[in-house]
Amino acid sequence: MTSDTKKVPDRPDESRRTFLRTGLVGATATAIGAGAIATPAAASESDSEKKKARYQETAHVKKYYQTNRY
Amino acid sequence: MARMKFLCDADRCIECNACVTACKNEHEVPWGINRRRVVTINDGKPGERSVSMACMHCTDAPCASVCPVSCFYTTADAVVLHSKDLCIGCGYCFYACPFGAPQYPKTGNFGSRGKMDKCTYCAGGPEADNASAELDKYGRNRLAEGKLPLCAEMCSTKALLAGDGDIIASIYKERVAKRGYGSGAWGWKVAYKETIAI
Questions:
Q1: What is the CB neighbour count within 10 angstroms for residue B136?
Q2: For residue A44, which residues of chain B lie inside 8 Å, CB to CB?
Q3: Cα separation of B126 and B122, whole Å?
Q4: Judging by DSSP bridges, how do beta strands B4-8 and B37-41 pair with one another?
Q5: ipTM entry
Q6: Residue of B182, B172, B161, B159 whose CA lies nearest to B13
Q7: Cα–Cα distance, B185 to A48 (Å, whole number)
């Protein structure tokens, strides 16, 4: 009796797994890289810097006070 | 240290809403959000009064007290600011604020409100001064440029005062003393009109 079933290889084709592994590693690396870029701390000021006084009595501000006294 | 304050002279405010418009334009505030608004009491009746309202930058800010993620901070100038990176949009600050200052950009299902937005006293946020990230999230940082909030600076009748609390209080006191009447005026004659003899 002849069998026309397809020949099943002894070992699975590992190149497909390698492809998946490479893809997974690449995606993880990309996610870590994007996370590092998007970290808000990178662009934020330090605690003391963000709370420091920014008001200055400049000539512009003095003129504003003067015009409000009319 | 100077403490930043807003003071609206209700006898001068003419409800032109220019402060509201200027704020929206300066900070590129999105649709549906007003960091400042003009409230009119007894509208259309004789003796109506208008007051320009925004975040009052409270000393012991209720918004900061209720925030579950502590995104609020007070600067050395006594300006109450917040971090939109930390904000979770829970809306507690909206319920706590007596002035209705916190605003939310979205109204969606499941209570998704988006990050809270409010008046920054033209002092930006936790990002570097006038960086593009700060401009996008919080608007312009005029205080760092040596200026004052635009709403007050461009007020045509000089009703809205901003700046060092001591200085604007003295300006307001001068006005009231000269007028001798209206909100903020003091003395028995003012309180009881002419019906009392001193």
A1: 11
A2: 83, 85, 126-128
A3: 13
A4: unpaired
A5: 0.87
A6: B159
A7: 40
The CATH code for residues B4-192 is 3.30.70.20
Residue A36: φ, ψ to 5° = -65, -35
Model pTM score: 0.77
Candidates B28, B124, B142, B44; CA nearest to A55 is B142
Q: In whole angstroms, give the CA distance from residue B176 to residue B164.
A: 18
Which residues lie below 8 Å from residue B26, measured CB to CB, with a gap of 6+? B122, B139, B140, B142, B150
- In chain B, where are the structural domains located? 4-192
- Which chain B residues in 11-30 lie under 8 Å from chain A, judged by CB atoms? none
Contact B174 A53 (CB under 8 A): no
Find the range with the poorest average confidence among B27-31, B141-145, B161-165.
B27-31
pLDDT average, residue stretch A32-46? 56
Do the beta carbons of residue B149 and residue A46 sit within 8 Å? no
Question: What is Dmax (Cα atoms) for chain B?
Answer: 63
